[in-house]
Amino acid sequence: MSDPLSPDHVAWFRKMLEIRLFEEKVQELFMQGAIQGTTHLCQGQEAVSVGAIGAMRPGDVQTNTYRGHGEALALGMAPETAFAELMGRSSGCSGGVGGSMHLIDVSKGNIGANAIVGAGLPIAVGAAVAFQIRQQPHVALSFFGDGATNIGTFHEALNMAAVWTAPVVFIITNNLYGEYSPLRSTTPLDDLARRAGPYGFPGVIVDGQDVDAVHGATSDAVERARRGEGPTLLEMKTYRYRGHSRADPAKYRPEGELERWTSRDPIELLGARLAADGRVSPDDQAAMRAEVQAEIDAAADRAVQSPYPTLEETERYVYAG
Q1: Closest CA to 22 of 47, 44, 41, 48
Q2: Domains, in order of start, for the chain
Q3: What is the spatial distance between Cα 79 and Cα 81, in angstroms, rounded to a whole number?
Q4: Which of 38, 172, 182, 271 is geometrically suited to a Cys-Cys bond with 235, CB 3.0 to 4.6 A?
Q5: CA-to-CA distance for 145 and 151, rounded, in angstroms?
Q6: Residues 186 and 227: beta-carbon distance below 8 Å
Q7: Is 199 in contact with 162 (CB distance < 8 Å)?
Q8: Around Cβ 153, how many Cβ atoms within 10 Å?
Q9: pLDDT per position as a tens digit, 175-228
Q10: Which residues contact 194 (CB under 8 A, 6 or more apart)?
Q11: Under a CB-based contact definition with an 8 Å cutoff, are residues 86 and 35 in contact?
C-alpha cells in the first residue's frame, strides 16, 4: 500500500462510488422495465476496474466482458451515455443497438466489451501486436473472468502473446463463479495465475479488494510490457455481490460467503484509509456518496429522454455498402 495517500485515492474512491451506484441504478431500472434484455452487474469488483484502468496511459487500450460497466466508467464514459446504451437509446455509446454487453468508446481506449466469453483476449493481443508493428509505446489490457481461463481462446492468446513478446496484460477478474458454477467445480486449481507458467511469463496473484494492490500490480505489468518484456497474467481475487445476471438470486452460494466478502468491501476499505489519513472524513464520504447518487439519478433521467434509434440508424450497424 502506498503511504501516505495521494489525491489519486480520493478520485479512485469517488469513481468506485460512481460504479457501485451506477450498477445499483441499473438493477432498479431493469426491475422497472426501463432496461430490456439481460444485465450483468459488478458490485464488489470496483477496485479491479479502477485500480487497473488507473495504470493505463493515453494511447493504451483495453477489452473487457459483458460485466464491463465498471471498466467503461473507469475509462471515463459518462454515466448518461452508458445508461442510454443500456436503455437502447440513440444517444448511447453504441447508438442504442449494443445494450448492456457492448459498452465501447474507442476514443478513450475502450475497444470492446464482448458477450462471448473470452472474445476480448485475442482482440487485445492483436492490438498489442499492432502497437509493436507501428513501434508505438502502448499497451493492451484484457479483462476476463475466471471461467474464460478454461476455454481454448485463453490458451491460444497467452501462447501467441508469449511467442510475439506482445505488450499485453491479461487480467483475470476471479470472482469465484463462472456463471452459476463455483470455480472448483470446473477448474482443478485455486490460483489461476499459475496458468502463465507454461507460457514462460509471470503470473501474479493480487488482492482484488485493495485498489492499491490492483493498481500497483497492474502498473508493474504495464511498464514491463512497455519495456518490451512481454505479457503478464494478473489474477485479481475478488467477488461479485449479485448473481450472474439480472434476476439471479445466487442461492447456490454457501452460507456466509457473501458476508465474508462484504466485510472486505473495496469501497469501505479505501474509505477507512482515507478517514484514518485525515484526507476524507466519514461525514465527507457520506456527502460525496449523496452527491454521486444525485448525479447518477440525474444521468438516468436524462438518458431516458433520448429517442430510440430509427430503422435507418440501425441499418448501418447491420449492412455494409
Answers
A1: 41
A2: 7-315 (3.40.50.970)
A3: 5
A4: 172
A5: 11
A6: no
A7: yes
A8: 17
A9: 999 888 888 889 999 999 999 999 999 999 999 999 999 999 999 999 999 999
A10: 203
A11: yes
